[in-house]
Structures are given as structure tokens and as C-alpha cells.
Amino acid sequence: MHVLVTGGAGYIGSHTVRELIKAGHRVVILDNLSRGHREAVAVLQKTTPAGTLDFVPGDTGDHALVSGLLQERGIEAVLHFAAHSQVGESVERPELYYRNNVVHGLSLLDTVREGGVKYFIFSSTAAVYGEPVEVPVSEEHPVVPANPYGATKLAFEGALRWYGRAGGPRWMALRYFNAAGADPDGDLGEDHRPETHLIPLVLQAALGLRPAISIFGTDYPTPDGTCIRDYIHVTDLAVAHVLALHALVRGAAPAAYNLGNGSGYSVLEVVRAAEAVTGRSIPVRHTGRRAGDPAVLVAGARQAGQMLGWRPRFADLRTIIDTAWRWHQKHPAGFETV
Ligand code: UDP
Questions:
Q1: Is 289 helix (H, G, I), strand (E, B) or coil?
Q2: Residues 70 and 85 reside in one and the same domain
Q3: What is the ipTM of this complex?
Q4: Catalytic-residue membership of 129
Q5: Is there a single domain that holds both residue 106 and residue 243?
Q6: Helix/strand/coil (H/E/C) assignment for every residue in 176-215
Q7: What's the CA-to-centroid distance between 295 and ligand 1, angstroms?
Q8: The domain spanning residue 204 has which CATH number?
Q9: Top-level EC class, please (predicted)?
């Protein structure tokens, strides 16, 4: 199948492009490189068979460009990753999130519906749930986003649902918990500017690129007082997208599924596991809570297993950190080190 992947130069998008091509699909990446990396595209082009991958720089909101691509390439499925994804930034600059994630997203969806594309997979997030009232968080949990990032992702899920009933594509939305790790081949990985995620920050501290890691809050109602999260390997997320696409092709009903391991680790447990993996000591500094952080966020992800046949391969926290460590050691300055 010929697949359009928006945001394919980004972290989860680039890993998914690799898995799509491994599964025998052809891919066109559409990415404006505002957050993604041209070097990630170059790595993918170097490591995939000739003729399986094309890169088009541009915006999801560019109707003429996207419409032309859909027609010329005979695109049957769109996997939509292109979005802003930082919670803190979304609180400070909601207009960026509504414009990019909702306005441009809707333009893409209009173009996709006009173009008769059959399948649509959406990169969603556990942030749609907001502060959990019950853990593990299943798909039946109320959706009350606590920040504009989650609100814009939920708004787009709603559009998918209603467009789908009105002649739009058949869709699935995949709600990620904490994406982490790197492709086991070591040439794709996480490179956000600025970096705000725990595991890359911890590994940068292990490399001596940061003096210490700040622990955001030690007074949460958890066994060691630090927040608990469900870390899920990026390649496991990538594979879930391929399975979701194949399920839609087989006739599966549109739905939103959680993607997580179903087990939680505290911030301190992550730091200790990273010390064990790297063999280095990682200095920590206790600072106050970060606004908007729930104490515990762990996925109830049984449905993705049952409906998509998805089984995470890299569920163990140390394995997740080990793959990320290999990437960070080889690429201390991110993709610029390629
Ligand atoms: N965290 C931390 N120090 C940091 C970055 C993150 O203590 O420098 C904590 C954060 O409060 C949260 C967990 O690590 O409890 C995971 O945060 P991250 O930003 O990686 O993902 P999020 O849970 O916000 O999606």
C-alpha cells in the first residue's frame, strides 16, 4: 500500500516509517521540518530499499500540495503524526497548538476526505484523559484534558469520529503513554529541542552533558513520592501503527486504543535503572512539582492487545533505557552527530 506519513521526520513518525517499510509498504513523508529532522529522513533513505520512501517538505495545511500528493501517488492510507506535542509549551502558547494540531489537522482531514483516502491513523495521547480518576486508565476513562495539548488531540479525535460517519476515512486513534527508547539499530532516536522528557534528560546527565537531573516533586502520594509513568518503547508504538492499519484494511471498526505497557515506574526508579544501564552515577536535584503532572499515569492497554494483536517486545524498562543509551552515546548532539 502507498502510505502518506505526516511528521515522518519526527521521533515516533520516523520509527513508524521504518516499520511500515519493513512490512512491505511504500511511504511518502510529508514534514515541514519545524520539529522533525532532515537527518532522520536521510537515515531512513539510506537504510530502506530504493523506491520505497520519498520525502516532501511541506505543511499538512497546504491543501494544493496534499491534494496533489494523494492523487499523484495513489495514497490509500494516511498516518498523521505532524503536531506540536509539548504540554508546557501548549499552556503558554495555546494558539500554536490550536492552529497546528486542529486547524491544519482539519485541513488535512478535508483534503483526505475529498481525495477518497480509505484509512487514517492518528497519533493521539494519554493527555486526552487529564488527571486520572482511576488507574490503570482504560479507554472508558472520562476524557477531560488538563492542557491545550490534550485538548487539541481530543478535538481532532472528535473530528475523525464525525467525519468518518459522513464519508470520511475509516480511522483509528492511538493514545500513547510515555514514548521512550530508540530503534535497536541505533540510528534513529529521540532528539527534541529543547528536550523536556525524562529518559533523554537522564541519559544526557549520564553523559555529563547536564550537571544533574531535576526531580519534579517528591511529595506525590506514591511509594517514593515521585510521579509514576508507563514508559513504552517507540518501536512497539511504531509496530502498533502497522497493526492498526492492517486491522482497518481487514474491516476493523474505527476506535481509539491506549498504547502502554500497563506497568508504572517512578521518576527515581527510572534514574536508578539508568544508572544500572549506563554504569554511571546520575546526580539528582529535588525541585518542586511541575504544573499539570498527575501523580500516576499507567495504561490499561488490554484492548490494543485483543483488537490489534499487539504485544510490546521491549516492555522491560532497562531494555527501553538501554536502546536509548545506545542512541545517546552515538549521537550526543542528537541527529547533528550523524
Ligand atoms: N520529570 C522530572 N524531571 C525532568 C523531566 C521529567 O522529574 O527533568 C518527571 C515528570 O514530572 C513526569 C515524568 O518525569 O513525572 C515523565 O515526564 P516526561 O516529561 O518525560 O513525560 P510526561 O509524563 O510529561 O508525558
A1: coil
A2: yes
A3: 0.98
A4: no
A5: yes
A6: ECEEECCCCCCCCCCCCCCCCCHHHHHHHHHCCCCCCEEE
A7: 11
A8: 3.90.25.10
A9: isomerase
